[in-house]
Specification:
The protein has 203 residues and is of the alpha/beta class. It contains nine helices and seven strands. Strand 5, helix 6 and strand 6 form a beta-alpha-beta unit. It is globular and about 45 Å long.
């Protein structure tokens, strides 16, 4: 992958938020097709480069998203064996495979007491919540109550003014103000994605 200008801007903003402002819970709101997962993969790659330990937990609701996300991370990390998928019939086979885990939130909750409640709160250094507009739901409560990562990153395509205010609270942000917002109109203007038909017909 080669970073696009808007992706580099988002990564730069994340760096400023953390280094200058001490904000380690970050919410990225960007239109579908703008490469949010790729951004998080490059962000994680930099984290892994600068930290001796970089255990990652990547969560999402749907198997399709988890598979796509794992493949993008593998491409960015240039490691075809990076990460383990835990959803459906896929699951970790060895203890080491929990260190870079892509798991559905339903599986996380189903196996929480058996698997996830045992490690300490700092077991995962970097946690990604895809479809982060769901993060205020009860299904994420165990994750947030138990783990305290060095970095928490939320990804969502839901427009910032349509996200439940409690989602902003999860990331300790002002209501309606994500760490970085890259909306559909800007993405179309920048030529990142094509103009949707409904936008094309709107005067």
């Amino acid at each position: 992958y080669t970073l696009l200008p808007h992706q580099k801007q988002i990564l730069d903003k994340l760096r400023v938020e953390r280094e200058d402002r001490g904000n380690f819970k970050n919410l990225i709101v960007a239109a579908t097709g703008t490469g949010k997962t790729v951004i998080s993969a490059f962000d994680y790659q930099e984290f892994a480069r600068t930290h001796s330990r970089a255990r990652i937990l990547f969560t999402a609701h749907r198997e399709e998203i988890l598979r796509q996300s794992l493949n993008r991370y593998r491409s960015v990390m240039q490691d075809a064996n990076f990460g383990t998928l835990w959803v459906g019939a896929n699951r970790p086979q060895e203890a080491s495979e929990y260190e870079h885990l892509f798991v559905s939130i339903s599986m996380f909750n189903y196996r929480f007491e058996e698997c996830f409640a045992l490690p300490g709160s700092d077991f995962y250094d970097y946690i990604v919540i895809d479809e982060a507009h769901h993060s205020q739901a009860d299904s994420y409560r165990k994750l947030f109550d138990h783990f305290q990562p060095q970095l928490l990153v939320g990804l969502t395509a839901t427009p910032k003014d349509e996200i439940d205010k409690n989602t902003y609270e999860v990331f300790e942000l002002e209501n309606g103000v994500p760490t970085y917002g890259y909306d559909l109109a800007q993405a179309v203007k920048d030529g990142i994605i094509e103009k949707p038909k409904e936008m094309a017909t709107t005067k």
